[in-house]
Design brief:
Elements: H1 8-24, H2 31-38, H3 42-48, H4 52-77, H5 81-96, H6 103-110, H7 112-139, H8 149-161, H9 176-191, H10 194-204
Length: 210
């Protein structure tokens, strides 16, 4: 059954479940926890979903679809490529705020089908949107003309999961959301022309000596 065809109660379960997974990690949340959080019996929960793996898969699919729709909206409304990135930065802050550092590790190790879903989202939808943004920025004179679109786009995708690498950024020392924003800002500044840098400073409301 497609996510769009799911009933109201199923969608309520999926949204509540993903919020728990996001805050606590996939491994630490059980079907008992989900049922208790929703104030329903585990029997009722199993009426709608075969097992936890299905909940994880459908909840992940539902969440990714909502992110895609929100991202499309930001892109359509943005007057230029840099405004796109600033809006994506706001979305990034919202998405990764209070997200458990083990979420990608848990997904990859314990729920391979759901991990594959995330990878398809990343290497399909996200990759194309990043490429489109780079091409748009070059056309608008905000990004350098000598950029390798394919390399930069794939580098950007690799950087998304970097803040969750506990060897590089131990969770007790770093805030994931802040690291994500710092990485995105560095990526943006590295691509920008002088015109782009001036516009970035306007957005950030800072004055920089030339």
């Amino acid at each position: 059954m497609e996510i769009a065809e799911k009933s109201g109660i199923e969608l309520r379960i999926l949204k509540a479940s993903f919020e728990m997974f996001r805050q606590r990690g996939f491994k630490s949340v059980s079907m008992d926890d989900i049922a208790q959080h929703l104030g329903m019996s585990k029997k009722t929960l199993y009426k709608w979903f075969r097992n936890k793996d299905q909940v994880v898969y459908d909840a992940t699919a539902c969440y990714l679809r909502s992110i895609q729709e929100e991202c499309e909206g930001y892109i359509c409304q943005a007057p230029n490529a840099l405004e796109e990135l600033f809006r994506i930065m706001a979305l990034t802050k919202q998405v990764f705020s209070d997200m458990h550092p083990s979420i990608f590790y848990d997904l990859q190790r314990y729920h391979p089908d759901s991990w594959e879903l995330w990878m398809k989202h990343k290497n399909g939808f996200m990759l194309e949107k990043v490429k489109d943004n780079i091409r748009r920025g070059i056309k608008e004179g905000l990004y350098r003309k000598d950029l390798d679109v394919e390399v930069l786009a794939r580098m950007r995708l690799a950087l998304i999961e970097l803040p969750f690498n506990r060897e590089v950024f131990p969770s007790h020392e770093f805030n994931i959301s802040q690291v994500q924003l710092a990485v995105l800002e560095h990526y943006m500044l590295g691509m920008a022309t002088l015109k782009g840098h001036k516009l970035i400073n306007e957005y950030k409301q800072i004055t920089e000596e030339e």
